[in-house]
Amino acid sequence: MFLAYRIFMGVKILITIRELWDKDMLEAIQLKALCLPEELAGMSEEKLNIEKEYSYWTNWMHAGIENNDVRALLGAFENDKMLGVAFVSYAEIEDSNSGIELNGLWVYPEMRGRGISLMLISKILDYYEKLGLKEIIVYNYHNSSSNSFYRKLGAKVFKTELQMDGKIPTDVFKCDIPAMIDYISKSTVKYKMDFY
């Protein structure tokens, strides 16, 4: 468990970052579905099949050990209310031989601007850096507004692929983990956060 205190309007607020449990997964997938239209930025009208996604990600969560993968599915919570989630695993070898892949990062729209994404990514980077990993890879749809977020974190596009049956251009970002940690530590001052 990871705790972050944030000062908001003069009040200290406790945000807990912890692993997702099976009971959290349905809400996490519903959050992904809520965020998908914004991620696609009008490039597709694709909708998620919640039941199919739930089954896939729940199986994925439990299959890490058998696949020699260290997977993390984290959630940010305030008073047991989910604020956002992040999914991460080892990167594909063709993207990085010493890296992790951010498989998903979703924050409720009304919770954005509070540093939730930074808290989730900070926890992820800290954990995987201790395992000796050096880079983070992020696949993000080309027209998604969140691309600017990854650029601010120091990530650079190193290739572009077509996804969703070859219809959607997807930028593949790469960044050194220590550089991103450094950026985040400077950014948390803006949000008046303390990590414990």
Automatic annotation (TrEMBL):
Gene Ontology terms for molecular function: acyltransferase activity, transferring groups other than amino-acyl groups
InterPro entries: Acyl_CoA_acyltransferase, GNAT_dom
PROSITE patterns attached to this UniProt entry: GNAT
Domain annotation N-acetyltransferase: ranges: 15-178
Pfam families found in the cross-reference section: Acetyltransf_1
Keywords: Transferase
Name of the protein in its database record: Acetyltransferase (GNAT) family protein
Source organism: Anaerocolumna xylanovorans DSM 12503
